[in-house]
Amino acid sequence: MNDGIKTYLRLLRYASHYWLMFTFGALAMLIFAITDTGFAFLIKTLTDSFAGTENSKSIDQIKGYLPLIVIFIFFIRGLSGFFSTYNIAWIGRQVIKSLRAEIYNKFLYLPTIFLDRKSNAELLSKVTFNIEQVAESTSNIITILIRDTLTIIVLTIYMVYLSPTLAKIMFMAAPIIALLVWSLSKLFRRYSERIQDSMGDVAHAIKETLQNHRIIKIFNGQDFENEKFSVINENNRKHNTKLLSTKAIGDALTIFIASLGVAGVVFVATTDEVRSNMSVGDFSGFITAMVLLMTPLKRLTNVNAMIQKGVAAASSIFILIDENNEKDKGQQEAGILKGSIEYRDITFSYNPEYEPTLKNINLCINSGETVAIVGKSGSGKTTLVNLLPRFYDVSSGFLAIDDQSIEEYSLSSLRANISVVTQEVTLFNDTIINNIAYGNYSSEEIDKAINAAHLNEFIEKLPNGLDTKVGDQGVLLSGGQRQRIAIARALLKNTPILILDEATSSLDSESEKYIQEALENLMMNRTTLVIAHRLSTIEKADRICVLSEGQIKEIGTHNELIRNNSEYALLHKLQFNEKV
Ligand SMILES: Nc1ncnc2c1ncn2[C@@H]1O[C@H](COP(=O)(O)OP(=O)(O)OP(=O)(O)O)[C@@H](O)[C@H]1O
Ligand SMILES: [Mg+2]
Predict the structure, then answer these.
(1) Quick one: CATH architecture of 341-575?
(2) Which of 114, 357, 552 has most ligand 1 atoms within 8 Å of CB, for mutation?
(3) Non-local CB neighbours of 80 within 8 Å, separated by 6+ positions
């Protein structure tokens, strides 16, 4: 089946839950279509009455009611027009609500590696722009497709009734119009796809500029950014204009082809044979119906552009919805783990085409042990710890907690056992308290965590205290304050396994000393992985593991490594300004 049709059917499946609303809408459309024909009938009747033809006798009887009939027809037309538009738009909004919820939920469960690679703004543009396109086109399409098709059908029946010969000529134009509509649809689809992509580009550019405004300012990059944006902006305009002009050409051609049909009708209507078979009223009724036909006909040919726009948007949304979630095949609920960790022959690549980031990692950590990981920037430290909560899955090897492969635990129960203070702290644009207590905790527990993370002094000074908003990603706070919030968050979660990735790197020496004490207390009865460039913070670790280019170079206690004059000893000497 054609991809476009498949996408459209899938979209309709979402709408099919609301069949009752649809039935009423469709009924309203039918009434709407009949009122149009009723209008043509009215014209025919009036003309006959003026012309004093045979039919005029019957008209004499209803003459007084005619104004009322006009009002009635238009009242019914307005009412049915309302319900046909409202009901279908209502269904459209319901469909969009479901789709949007589905995508949002998808974002919560997509693998980290997928989200790393995609531009956030591009994804955002799908939930906002593309989805609105689907909404607009689905409801418009259904309304137009059904209401206008019905109108055309009822008008046609009436025209055939008035004069089959004329109707035949009029509809000789139909196949040509159909051919035109069909041949334009590919263009519509192509331009719509490009517009949607270019909206993603626009969103991406704007988001990046807003995020990096300090860098742009310090480099005086305004002109450069402006130029970059104008290309993207122009691209968007170009595709939109192309779509518009294609639509306008389509409109003009449709009406022109239809006018050929009208010309044919006018030509044939003047022949004696037709004239003798039709009253003046019949003829004017026919012409009225023909004129009334033009608008729905034009809209119907335009609907194609809408269908293509909707299909392009919907297929990009369905591609996203069909992405695989994080693998979560583990059957076992982890419960509260003891926290022993084993990395066995672990190899990991972010991208299979490149050199692996981690190679043959073998590392056993006992429950309750604190292991520090040191190594040059880019050596793979963060990657190594990110494998534990399964932000990324190992490419090969065996990674176990409590002697069981971590893939056998359900993701949520595994993650419930691990706290992480990430290298880059990001916060929600919410209050401090909501950022710390990301879950259900008692106020006592929260107070304890705030104290341990040395946040109280800072919070007391804030006019709104714990209810102070931290701004987008926490920009209203200093780097150290953010880090302390992240530490409090991890302390509060209170799990058997703790990962501290440069957790105290932004703190001044005094706060670091205090927090270090709090963290040391915390590390006591849990398994901890500490990553730190500042070696002073890890001297007390049970063991230190030195990573270099994705491989473990050495492992041992601080004293052992210093004694062996190893790579760690060298780093240590450099940092403490000892003679190398
Ligand atoms: N999400 C990612 N996608 C692809 N490659 C990545 C990703 N994150 C890190 N890398 C690459 O993996 C390698 C190891 O990165 P990692 O973040 O583990 O280093 P690190 O030892 O923590 O460094 P630092 O001390 O600077 O934090 C780097 O070469 C980096 O370019
Ligand atoms: Mg790192």
Answers:
(1) 3-Layer(aba) Sandwich (3.40)
(2) 357
(3) 28, 29, 31, 32, 35
Report the alpha-carbon angle 414-119-108, nearest 5: 30
CB 414 within 8 A of CB 390: yes
Give the residue, by CA position, lying nearest to ligand 1 atom 7.
350
- CB-defined site of ligand 1, < 6 Å: 116, 350, 357, 375, 377-383, 423
pTM: 0.81
Split at pLDDT 50, 70, 90, the class of 42 is confident
Q: How far is the CA of 468 from the centre of ligand 2 (A)?
A: 30
Q: Which residues contact 54 (CB under 8 A, 6 or more apart)?
A: 279
Instruction: State which fold the 3-321 domain adopts.
Output: ABC transporter transmembrane region fold (1.20.1560)
Nearest CA to ligand 1 atom 6: 350
377 CA distance to ligand 1 centroid (A)?
8
| Residue 525 φ then ψ, to 5° | -115, 35
Query: For residue range 523-547, what is the model confidence (pLDDT) as tens digits?
Result: 778 899 999 887 777 878 899 999 9
Half-sphere exposure of 410 (CA within 13 A, CB side): 9
Q: How many of the other CB atoms lie within 10 Å of CB of 258?
A: 21
| Distance between CA atoms of residues 318 and 137, nearest Å | 16
Closest CA to 306 of 140, 90, 97: 140
pLDDT of residue 534: 79
Q: Which of 103, 127, 38 is nearest to 75 (CA)?
A: 38
β-pairing verdict for 497-501 and 418-421: parallel
Q: CA angle, 362 as apex, 356 and 366 as ends, to 5°?
A: 135
The Å distance, Cα 375 to ligand 1 centre, comes to 12
Residue that has been written with the tokens 């469909």 in this structure: 95
Ligand nearest to the CA of 355: 1
Distance CA 405, CA 385 (A): 15
Supply the residue whose CA is at minimum distance from atom 26 of ligand 1.
377
What angle do the packed helices 222-269 and 280-321 form, to 10 degrees?
A: 150
Which long-range contacts does 298-301 make (Cβ < 8 Å, 24+ apart)?
298/251, 298/254, 298/255, 299/144, 299/148, 300/144, 300/145, 300/148, 300/149, 300/152, 301/177, 301/180, 301/181, 301/250, 301/251, 301/254
> Tell me, what's the pLDDT at 106?
93
Nearest atom in ligand 1 to 386's CA: 18
Measured in Å, residue 73 CA sits from the centre of ligand 1 at 71
Q: 73 to each of 47, 63, 69, 286, 570, how far by Cα in Å?
A: 18, 16, 6, 18, 94
Continuous segment of H or E residues that includes residue 350: none
Query: Could you read off the pLDDT of 286-328 as tens digits, one per residue?
Result: 888 888 888 888 787 777 778 888 888 888 899 999 999 999 8
Is 543 in contact with 341 (CB distance < 8 Å)?
Answer: no
Of all residues in the chain, what percent are helix, strand and coil, respectively (each to 5)? 70, 10, 20
- The domain locations on the chain are 3-321, 341-575
Once rounded to an integer, what is the mean pLDDT over residues 470-490?
Answer: 84
State the distance from the centre of ligand 2 to the C-alpha of 137, rounded, in angstroms. Answer: 46
Q: Tokens representing 185?
A: 């649809």
